[in-house]
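Chain and backbone:
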Amino acid sequence: MVFTAYAMPYWEADTPIRASFTGTSGTASIRQAGTAPCFLEADIANTRGATLTSLSLTADGQKMAFSGLALGAGKTLKICYDENWILRAEVDGASVLAQRTADSADDLILPPGRSTTVTIEASHAVSVTLKARGLWL
């Protein structure tokens, strides 16, 4: 019997593919370049003077929603994954994962080989940068 271990992914793109938009609601299309599903990451900046309290991102039928955020003017919410592929959602280095709603998806996963429309809804204007690092198996 032979056991073979593989590290996931076999190969990951150096530079993520990016898409961006600005507004209280909108969509952007992003196509990840790999052959395996990958995680969607996002930088969401509050571009208005008022405090942002709620927002949601929807991609490929999955929705990640936050409420009670208290994202101040000029602050950025970073949704990303660490070196162990563990989800992080942070503002100024402090976790806001507890502000996800109960029905929020744990991850937003993009399928390989096709464009995915990502929709955002926020309590007021934000600037969004979406990122996807292609994964190859």
About this structure: The mean pLDDT is 91. The two ends are 23 Å apart (CA to CA). The chain has no helices and eleven strands. Residues 8 and 84 are 10 Å apart (CA to CA).
